[in-house]
Amino acid sequence: MAKLRMRQAIVAALADEMERDGSVIVFGEDVAAAGGPFKTSEGLLERFGRARVRDTPISETGFLGAGLGAAVTGLRPVVEIMFIEFLGVALDMLSTEAAKFRYLSGGKLSVPLVVRASAGSGLGFGAQHSQTLETWLYATPGLKLAVASGPRTAYGLLRAAVQDDNPVVVLEPRPLYGEREEVETGDAAVIPLGQANLCATGDDVTIVGLGQTVGTALRAAESAGWTADVIDLQTLLPWDRDTVFASVARTGRLVVVEESPRTGGWGTEIAAAVAGECFGDLTAPVTRITAPDVPVPFPPELEARYLPGPDYVRAQIDTLLDSGRLPVPWWETEGLGA
Amino acid sequence: MAKLRMRQAIVAALADEMERDGSVIVFGEDVAAAGGPFKTSEGLLERFGRARVRDTPISETGFLGAGLGAAVTGLRPVVEIMFIEFLGVALDMLSTEAAKFRYLSGGKLSVPLVVRASAGSGLGFGAQHSQTLETWLYATPGLKLAVASGPRTAYGLLRAAVQDDNPVVVLEPRPLYGEREEVETGDAAVIPLGQANLCATGDDVTIVGLGQTVGTALRAAESAGWTADVIDLQTLLPWDRDTVFASVARTGRLVVVEESPRTGGWGTEIAAAVAGECFGDLTAPVTRITAPDVPVPFPPELEARYLPGPDYVRAQIDTLLDSGRLPVPWWETEGLGA
Amino acid sequence: MTATEALLDRRGGLRDRVARLERMLEIRALEDRVQALFSEGLVHGTTHTAQGQEAVAVGVAAATRPTDVVTCTYRGHAVALALGLTVEDVLGEIMGRTIGSVGGVGGSMHLCEPDVGLLPTFAIVGAGIPVAVGAGLSAQLRGGDDIAVAVFGDGATNIGAFHEGLNLAAIWQLPVLFVCEHNVYGEYSRFDLTTPVADVSVRGASYAIPSATVDGQDVDVVVAAVEEAVTAIRAGGGPRFLEFKTYRYAGHSRSDTAPYRPEGEMELWRERDPIDRFTERLLSEDALDAAAADAMAARVAARVDEAVETVKASPVPDAEAMFRHVYAPNRSR
Amino acid sequence: MTATEALLDRRGGLRDRVARLERMLEIRALEDRVQALFSEGLVHGTTHTAQGQEAVAVGVAAATRPTDVVTCTYRGHAVALALGLTVEDVLGEIMGRTIGSVGGVGGSMHLCEPDVGLLPTFAIVGAGIPVAVGAGLSAQLRGGDDIAVAVFGDGATNIGAFHEGLNLAAIWQLPVLFVCEHNVYGEYSRFDLTTPVADVSVRGASYAIPSATVDGQDVDVVVAAVEEAVTAIRAGGGPRFLEFKTYRYAGHSRSDTAPYRPEGEMELWRERDPIDRFTERLLSEDALDAAAADAMAARVAARVDEAVETVKASPVPDAEAMFRHVYAPNRSR
Ligand SMILES: Cc1ncc(C[n+]2csc(CCOP(=O)(O)OP(=O)(O)O)c2C)c(N)n1
Ligand SMILES: Cc1ncc(C[n+]2csc(CCOP(=O)(O)OP(=O)(O)O)c2C)c(N)n1
Ligand SMILES: [Mg+2]
Ligand SMILES: [Mg+2]
Asked: Which residue of D has its CA nearest to B168?
């Protein structure tokens, strides 16, 4: 065990997989010589050489497509999309090609392709570099999607992704790259895709978080007048219905904490499924605590309000538990928004 | 009033807007000389000339970007994306640029851009040409999204979209292009964006459909042992919460009928919102009737099962009403799927 | 002979020039039959046939080997047959039967046979280009001298994936052959309405990729051009780009009657029909005699007839088929 | 003078060569100051400065007019100031204050001022290229002889949007000038590691677009090249592509110390500094004397100092600002 920053945990996961399997290769913009724009591939070029660690031109369609082509012909590429927004110029390769390639090969091919992308708000990157965009990848049979919530999960999920024979996207919340945590490395630390992690237990409410919002939820629960099951979903596609449903069966209440906009954020899937499958268990309305329906604003003061913080989450849950009614988001209380 | 096929209604809407406003222009692949791959721009070239009706190279990023550039400099472009999947090579222009351009201009610019795209299954176009993909466009503040359910709504929504000062995507379910219906044309027939249409009324359940599934829902309700409010959502971004909530307040039950895959389909938003906002009204679990989590299969026999049909929808609702419990999708009953 | 051996045998047979003619005839016969089956309502959905383009498909297949990886488009029946897929593999897919190359769930636009190098064909214009580049990367890292081949249309040279794919292959000096089937049209648009240069091979210069424009209606010329390029690539010379001038006799897809063709254009191309030209040459060289030619035609017709019956008798996939192969099972390592 | 008039005045002033020097100095001074403010913790997020590239920005602005539409990148401070935006407009945005050109919600990467033709700057590489093509389409349909200008980096010439944008402009013969600021690097990668041709202007041939590579460190040369191209475009000659060879002295963005530069490279470029060269020329031509030069430097320094104070005093936007301008109100027609 060692204390690692999330970016170091990512390097470690990549190195461990590259060590273990010579077919694992890494490429993306500035991932080789520079060690990655967020230093998530530092040292890999020196250690594994130019053949396996490559810088690319600014050509997301080109190199993501190359990742797919390499994946179906014997390699296990890990491709970096520097900011998740850049998938906007290359989504075809992931959703329409990679996710359907095994199906369209009649099962003759598999697609061991990993796409890593940084995501999320909090660092002042502005409206075109601060989103999470999970929903671009939703409703895509054939794809898997995991989201790291810190160094430990970044390590474990990434290793699982590299070992998986399907295309897997791993999102890395950018503000967490510098976070430190004790991280066990090695095979035992691999986190199987599709399993959620119950990070805290309690009786009053089930809080589901993902990526950055897991920490938010934990901090919200710390000093609250209620106790909560806090679930780090870890994998969004496929998500761990059993763990979530079992918790809700016990607590009777679901709160999903999301970085995404209110309309159509990833939590709609969880909320809808729980509302359907756990109807008899629910003692309060399923609740989503989200960002507002606006592009991510630049000024630090506004960006801090954009992302739901621990105090806000705690207060919203207080309201839910006290009133039994759906809490009103802050911007509606303040008469803002549409 | 005249009986029009949906493709003719689209031509009529475009022609009426082009007539009314000289800044409306139309472009896309083969929309000019050939009158459109689905004949949705037939005669426009002859009527409005080569300057305003243009064929493009196969360059979705290029011409969608050009649509944005034209929209912020005085024109009102209507851009055709032949199959919604092709947005996969150009989503950046819509989501990351067009939808945020007004915000990022500090309100100095508006973006009167319309993107029309054909969508959906049923015609044997296979896995890469048969999806609806609404969720690529979800969680995108700044964007509007409407879906036609037949000739009348295709006309009314498209005209509203062209008149709107925001980027609007209008999806046209491909199997409906040949459908005929009495269509009133003219200004009174414009359908304001953001309003749902209550197509049928009943007491037992609220059925929400979109595009192709509106007809499915109506047919399901026709010969059922229950009565339903059938709501054509018409606009998905922003959707008409008032109409849906008011109906659910009366019926106590929500069923969303979707063409999309089960996981992460557009109905999750509706189901999640209703589950939250109408918790006290609900007498049964919110229910989504969807396609399975698979790529769209080619054989007609399989494609017909992929898309929820009227008999299946009716039977699922029978189960919901009889048992008060969430109906199990057909593939689970048959032991198929994950 | 196993199924794989049979495919390899069909592919290997193309070493023989007469066999190349027979394969071209087979392609023509199948494509014509597909159109007929459509009219009879036996084929569903859409389809894109390649009559007129046989020499490019067969020439590329003859000058490469089954361990070379090929990406190709929705207009893929010809290339698939040339690479070695059987008529049943292809028609089975077109008709959505379990005998088809991906079990019937793909349809006309989605063929695949890794045994002879064919990756799933692409219904998105240009998408196969970067994917071939990735296959070239695998080949480069594996060592040896296998290559990757991307086959795409003239219209595809206007999409970003073309630009990015060629650039990446050049930067990484990958063993990739880019093959443009310049068949004059992208859907209903003549290429000059969408492409401001007459020969798209000039675009190779943007990536310092040696490029050429070649007659695509003469299979001998195609084979020679591909052989030369492939030899250079296998020797480590990096990517090459070949543009073959060819023509499609049918419309873009099933429903297209091609009213946009200028008068006389079809006739000019018909005079340069790749099958007629090659038949005449083989006859004049005494590589073939009239009786053998007739026998060949009869053989091909019979093969297609038989395949139609076999495919008709093949079952429609059951509902379970649509749930199969969505995800690979996790491997145990 | 209204704010718009003041902007137009700043833009129009560039007719004068001495004013061009002053604008270049202003750009340099602001960019240096932005980096200093970062170190002081007064600027948040990321920023991309353009010291060394002033001649291209000012030359392009001087040779075009405010009714021409410009798209530009996240490295946009220089172009924005050249086009006429004030130091407060730009710095206000960089510091996220209401005085900024889009009210502070955009940040360093998102400037905009339609009054002088600047569309919202693009944080996605290449995205501004097709958008400029659309602005060219508007100009073409409007009649008159306005044009559109797309400004982008060398790295952007490897992305699909570049290819598609140039092709479309060529096919529609639109009045668009494509301007590549070839500053040797795309992020941390030297251009030759990502681009297999030395002069990206060769890529214009793929679209039959007249193209040239030009010294970007001499503002007179830049102005002359842009004027020539713009004259041809305004006369209906279709698009042109100019590649300016330039250099960025700073790292790619705030955090980059540019360890990847080969030794001696910076020094070579510094010898060709656009400001030094132009100052010397103006002095040698007696268009400027030493006293005036000093006064100019002092004026610029004072202007930037003052702007820093003004911006610091400008309020942070309130929460309501993030909800404003998400959608346009529906127009009534
Ligand atoms: C990205 C994308 N845009 C548009 C289409 C629709 N489309 C299918 S084939 C085709 C024409 C392609 O022309 P070309 O590349 O010349 O190939 P050909 O069909 O002539 O073989 C078009 C526009 C598509 N499939 N993908
Ligand atoms: C599509 C996309 N890919 C990657 C990036 C990340 N990125 C930002 S700037 C940059 C380098 C661009 O280089 P160049 O075009 O030469 O412009 P310069 O920064 O030198 O002005 C990269 C890779 C991006 N913003 N957009
Ligand atoms: Mg073609
Ligand atoms: Mg650069």
From this structure: D327
